[in-house]
Amino acid sequence: MISIQPVAPPPFHWWSAAPHRPFFAVGLVQMVLTIAWWGAELTARHTGWWPMLDIVYATWAHQYLMLSGFIPFLLCGFLLTIVPRWLGQAEIPAQKFVLAWSLMTAGALVFWIGMFTSEVLLGVGVVLTGLGWVLGWITLMRRLLRGGRAEGRRHVAYALTGAGLGIVAHFAWGVWLWRGDWIWLDLARELGVWGMMVLMLMVVLNRMYPVFAINGLHEQLGSLAPEVAPPTSPSWFLPLAVALIAGRVTLAVLGEQPSLWLFDLPLLTAAAWVAWGWRLPALIFAPLAWTLYVGWMWLLVGLTLEAIQSGALALGYGELFGKAPLHALAIGLFGSVFLGVAGRVCRGHSGRPMAADRLTTAVFILFQAAVLARVLGEFPQPGGDTPFFNIAAALIWVICAVGFAWRHLQMVVLPRVDGRPG
User: Is 155 inside any structural domain?
Assistant: First the structure.
């Protein structure tokens, strides 16, 4: 009788066992490198010890790296993992995302080299990363077109809209690099921040916050968790947000900043209504859940500052807050939600308890200091324009990024601790 031996899995098979593993690994490294480089750049501007970039102006490289450097990896890793669950479908196999990951990783590496050597390499990096991002988006769109749960399809459609706008923003930056036409840089910034980042995070929070809130209480407190009704997410919010964001982006690209309050104010009102429906005092005991609520609070802060600044421009007072509204959104909203969602995904998909540990909680609290410092850096300071707040924000964020990556990289590059696949 012939004995058939089971085929051993290939070495490091767990690396591609779930999409978030390879994408999060590169995304976390990219995040640390991006923030560390920007901190060094800010310090160099006021000390002269670091050679300034001469291939591309550092501020525009900073815009690209923040919107197209590490976010696409985190976004693809999250969506490729979670979309099948939202739709009630089977997981996406490795052969459907490895090519996308490979192109994006190669593009990131080439872009970093190009920053210090060649504008041509910058362009090649943009194209490679963009192609990988498009492949990932197509994979997700095919899953959406297969059908699935109605509620899941709604959120996936909005999420893919945001991801698609991020791809347009990504290539718009490349067109600016090629042609030098500043409207493309403006389009890249507005679509990247509002069309991709803000919209995507609104979708993620509307879908996941109610689940995080209730599950977080039970995971953190066990049998001691209070019995509370799950917070609600109104069905009208996302379509309204899409319409308002579309109007806002259009006016911003056309240079109509004094009129932006027409869209910022109703979006702020709607977001505040959602926040009121989400209030749940018991969440103080569930860090992985209240991190998301804090992120939503930064959304309200950013929208408030945007509306006031636009109104001031309309009345002829000039800019009051500079880039403070932008950083309340791009750092406060994004960073807070990322720490909460990525932490939960990494822990849950590595077989670990969902409850946040002390390091993760400490990183989140310290990160809020970084956001506050960066926002305050845009306000008038005693003694004139000083870089203290901006440099402090960058250095604190570097510490937070390193701490978060140190704790969570092992969760995505090593096998699950419970021995299960995935």
Answer: yes
d(CA 96, CA 325): 38
Residue 177 located in a structural domain: yes
- 207-254 tens-digit pLDDT: 888 777 766 666 655 555 556 666 778 889 999 999 999 999 999 999
- Three-class SS of residue 109? helix
Assess if residue 10 is contained within a domain: no
pLDDT, tens digit (0-9, with 9 covering 90-100), for 372-419: 999 998 887 766 566 788 889 999 999 999 999 998 888 887 777 766
Number of domains the chain contains: 1
Total-model pTM: 0.91
CA distance 61 to 47: 20
Range of the domain at 365: 16-413
What's the rounded Cα separation, in Å, for the pair 399 and 28? 13
In a domain, 121, yes or no: yes
CATH number at residue 89: 1.20.210.10
| Closest listed residue to residue 329, CA positions, set 173, 199, 161 | 199
